[in-house]
Amino acid sequence: MAKITTSLIGEALVGEGPEIAHIDIVVGTKGSPVETAFMNALSSPSQGHTPLLAVLEPNVIPKPATLLVNKVTIKNANQAILMFGPAQASVAKAVMDSVAEGVIPKEEAENLLIIVSVFIEWDAIDKEKIYEYNYEATKLALKRAVEGTTTVDEALAKKDCAEHPFA
């Protein structure tokens, strides 16, 4: 029996400074609304927002196939290089490590699609931190998505005492 049968959502914030990683993830099966969103996003780039497939290296996509979409408008080549380099590679590696560790069942990987919303701040410059933070945030967001956390009870417990770092 399949472990992942519905659309899943996960989120994680990792790191600090301009290289901080904020990842939002949607996981779903082929044939579901996630596939429609995946295909629509991939085929609808706009200025400053170019969806791209995660790749371990050129010509090697992870399984499940994974689409990165940027949260922040890419305004220059340096920012694009961070998205099309360390962010792209770290997300792909995190997906494959999640499969290797059983977070995403290997036998389901070919039938799943993942959409990852990636934050690259305009002032970010450190490729190693971009890679490290996005790798960790992607793994954590995937784990949370599959485990169904945050639960309703967890969110209710935090609603009056939560401390948002940017609010």
UniProtKB/TrEMBL annotation:
It catalyses: 5,6,7,8-tetrahydromethanopterin + formaldehyde = 5,10-methylenetetrahydromethanopterin + H2O. Keywords: Lyase. Gene3D superfamilies: Formaldehyde-activating enzyme. Pfam families: Fae (PF08714). Its EC number is 4.2.1.147. Residues 9-166 form the Formaldehyde-activating enzyme domain. It is an enzyme of class 4 (lyase). Signal peptide: none annotated. InterPro entries: HCHO-activating_enzyme, HCHO-activating_enzyme_sf, Ribosomal_Su5_D2-typ_SF. One of its GO terms (biological process) is carbohydrate biosynthetic process. GO terms for molecular function: carbon-nitrogen lyase activity. Belongs to the formaldehyde-activating enzyme family. Catalyzes the condensation of formaldehyde with tetrahydromethanopterin (H(4)MPT) to 5,10-methylenetetrahydromethanopterin. NCBIfam families: one_C_fae. This is 5,6,7,8-tetrahydromethanopterin hydro-lyase. The lineage of its organism: Archaea, Methanobacteriati, Methanobacteriota, Stenosarchaea group, Methanomicrobia.
